[in-house]
Amino acid sequence: MILLNPSIPLESFLPPIDLAESIHFLRGRDHNGLNTGTFFLKVSAWSVHTLNKALGMPIYHPEIDLGNSFDQVAMSRVLSEDYGFEELTHGGEHAEGTPADRTKRLVNLTRPFLMQPREWYNTYEFSHGYEGGDAQKGHLLVHFPGLEEQRGDHMDKWLDELARNQPAWDVPFDKSVYVELIPKYWGLVRESRKLVQTANETLAELDPHSEQYVRLREAADLCESPLTNTSYAIGPGEDLLARMQQGCQMLSGRLHG
Amino acid sequence: MNLTERQPRTALLLLFVLGLYLLHTWHVQTTSEAVLKPSNSLSWMHPPSVLDSFQDSTYTAPIEYVDGQPDLWSMAGEHMAEDDIVKSEFVDSSTKPTIAKVSMLYGENPEPVYVRALRSHLVHNKRFNYAMFVLTEEAIGGFWNKPMYLLSLMIQELSKPSAERLRWLM
Q: Would the CB atoms of A43 and B147 count as touching at under 8 Å?
């Protein structure tokens, strides 16, 4: 990938202080549920465990077809196994609101990883253009997935553009799209966590077979899934923040309505 | 079979093994020279500036390796140095980096476009004091190189005292 805007500190994507301890892995959410093109992994024993388990997958589970993006699928499977998700959906299948942890009584709030909008640091160059838009938006980089034999040409085009016009892409953080989106994201993470926590307290008191439980559980899963469920997919052009907002509103409605 | 009968055979076998070893050493030497020495030796004495290499898309940059890492800075030239002076107010070079970027670039003659792509990170790295690790040998093969390399870096960092560790890998 090619770095476009050297004024965006990577620290701005990392968890704020109140969430810093509990989060070890940040990555983009894609139409396949996950995207490991670029991600953040904390230097920690948790990360060693997770990488180890992913690397061991072809040895311990030779029967699992890891497709042609082994590391990506293996990492996702490890998270699913360790944190009780439903089976992964493959091939960009639209798994809208896949309810996670239905079998367990409460929504798991201890998952040490979070999904972020993929276009923040995996901003794609498609054959028809750059999804980051023009220079004023100040996106950090451009990534070249797929593209096959066209990739070299696209990369050349970008490198030439930077050689001619680098200062235009060097946008200060407070003038970039990130200045609004990043605080909004973390605000929604906090809101979602708080709501699901409240929902869990109610769920613990309810009979899991009651209609009230099922309705509240469904909303709580919908609120939590955009943040951590590896099989929750988001289509191209869809907005993760909007989904998070919808999830929060729905759960809030069922809690207080 | 007694010992006297076996000795000539053993000597022949030893000679054969020695021959194989010499052949292997010679092969390793010639191939590693091919990696380390670019065909145009002048380019070592006059490294073109990053600006030049960006403008000429056919430019094939030789890569210098320092401690097994491609020395991208050595190719940076004056353009980069000037840029640092103007914009490096965030950087306190005495502090250790807390974030490192992890990448891969291997093969004897990496595509110039990938070298230029890696180089596009240098100003960013310098400005915010990020480390950058580049895997330069295809250690396992295919898609497993990346998690494998991450794991090795992770353990390397965890074996340092806490205050000296990187905090995040990207």
A: no
